Amino acid sequence: MEHVVVVGAGLGGVRVVEQLRANGHRGPITLIGAEEHPPYDRPPLSKQVLSGVWDPDRVILRDKPALDELGVAYRFGAAAIGLHDTTVELEDGSVVAGDAVVLATGVRARTIPGQPDGVRTLRTLDDATALRDALGESRSLLVVGGGFVGAEVAHAARQRGVDVTVLEAMPTTAAHALGPELGALTGRLFTEAGVDLRCGTRLSRFADAHTVELADSTRLSADVVLVGIGATPDVGWLGLDTDGVPCDRTGRVEGAPNTWALGDVAAWWDDVRGARCRTEHWTATVDQAAVVARDLLGQERPPPSVPYVWSDQFGLKIQLVGRPDLADNVLPLTGEGLAGGPVRGTVAAYFAGDTVVGVAAFGAPRFLPRLRGQVAAGAHRGTITSLMQELIGGVVR
After folding, report:
1. Which numeric CATH code is attached to 111-227?
2. Is this prediction's pTM over 0.90?
3. Which long-range contacts (CB under 8 A, 24 or more apart) does 126-132 make?
4. Mean pLDDT score of the chain
5. Is 230 in contact with 110 (CB distance < 8 Å)?
6. Over 80: is that where the pLDDT of 397 sits?
7. Counting Cβ atoms within 10 Å, is residue 395 exposed (0-12), middle (13-18) or buried (19+)?
8. DSSP per residue over 272-337, as a string?
9. What is the DSSP letter of 138?
């Protein structure tokens, strides 16, 4: 495993490079990225960059001099188009051969059949800066998709005084991430911010880059139209048609010796679920990078972590830990959001029977550190309610 080739120069790619060096690898490393930009962080794209609070340079994780300090060779603006054993073929006709390959190519923004070129998506730094500039010259925005990205873009647009309409096919917003009961709380954030939110709305077709036709034949137009309906793993160049690269619990790719995958593109085995799953979360990618680096070097892997994701929506931080998709019931722990009161300060737990499998907090970060540990331990309902009484009473030990 002397020469390690890392395909994908995003968060996962740069973190695995850093972990390899930190854990003692002194052999050559080559980092390959399809974009011209050096590795950058994606969460700020729909937040600080889009709102204009940050200049784009602030999202760079490691510039070229910093990669030079790590002793890393890099190829930016060179997309991978094929993998043969541990040799990577690039679109310019060149190849990079290594002793081990790490796949970290992430995802591509999902599009709708018949989507015109002028309709925007948000995945890359170039997408974010172009959308930021377009919003600065526009009076109206139409967003297809009411998930986290749709909410963050809608928030940035409302801060600029742009009229926003959001179309969501599901009965509630953020249902895939939070479930229908807590997803409905994010819907209230949309409407309270002055967004025209239309749930249960099906898009029939695009009339052009500024106009959509709904299933009931209604037409809606806006200066800017954005599709934010999730993403698909970038696996086509590998000849796969699966939802992610299939891996074991350490990121080793099934049927591919000396090959690992991590981040959004990878479907890792999850012992809790008893199945492979893809996790498009920033923290999961960072955690997986540490596991892959140590496994590649033959070292003991770190203990498993609890999934965690956050979103900044309309001035409120939403935090989610655990696996809410495994839940069959939700219990409010504090706050009045689920009773029709303010969303801010609401905390709720997801349970499978009486075992906690997740916690969501809306503008209530102080509760998360202790509750996250209980989710990791699979605590009982009674333990969670007792802990919340302690935390609410201010007795934190």
Report:
1. 3.50.50.60
2. yes
3. 126/35, 127/45, 128/45, 128/46, 128/49, 128/50, 128/56, 129/49, 129/56, 131/50, 131/224, 131/226, 132/49, 132/50, 132/51, 132/52, 132/156
4. 96
5. yes
6. no
7. exposed
8. TTTEEEE---HHHHHHHHHHHHHHHTTPPPPPP---EEEEEETTEEEEEEE-GGG-SEEEEEESSG
9. -
Backbone torsions φ then ψ of 146, nearest 5 degrees: -110, 30
Q: Are 34 and 305 in contact (CB under 8 A)?
A: no
Nearest residue to 72 (alpha-carbon basis) of 117, 161, 165, 6:
6
Q: Does 315-392 carry CATH code 3.30.390.30?
A: yes
Please tell me what DSSP assigns to residue 92.
T
Q: How far are the Cα atoms of 149, 319, 348, 349, 362 from residue 182, in angstroms, in the given order? A: 17, 12, 8, 10, 10
Rounded mean pLDDT, 186-195: 97
Q: Which two tokens stand for residue 378?
A: 């699979």
Give 85's contacts (C-beta < 8 A, 6+ positions apart): 257, 258
Amino acid at 94: S
Q: Do residues 270 and 288 make contact, with C-beta atoms less than 8 angstroms apart? A: no
pLDDT attached to residue 394: 58
Residue spans of the domains in the chain: they are 4-45+54-108+231-296, 111-227, 315-392
Banded pLDDT at 396 (limits 50, 70, 90): very low
pLDDT in tens, 63-94: 999 999 999 999 999 999 999 999 999 999 99
Report the CATH fold assignment for 4-45+54-108+231-296. Answer: FAD/NAD(P)-binding domain (3.50.50)
Dihedral sign from CA coordinates of 198, 199, 200, 204: positive
How many CA within 13 A on the CB side of residue 339? 10
- Locate all alpha helices (DSSP H) within the chain, ordered by sequence: 11-22, 48-51, 64-69, 125-135, 148-159, 175-192, 282-296, 368-377, 381-392
**Per-residue tokens: 49:** 């960059």
Specify whether the CB–CB gap between 43 and 69 falls below 8 A. Answer: no
Q: How many CB atoms lie within 10 A of CB 357?
A: 20
Q: How many CB atoms lie within 10 A of CB 207?
A: 13
With tokens 């807590």, the residue in question is 182
Other C-beta atoms lying within 10 Å of the C-beta of residue 222? 19
Q: What is the DSSP secondary structure assignment for residue 253, as one 8-state letter?
A: B
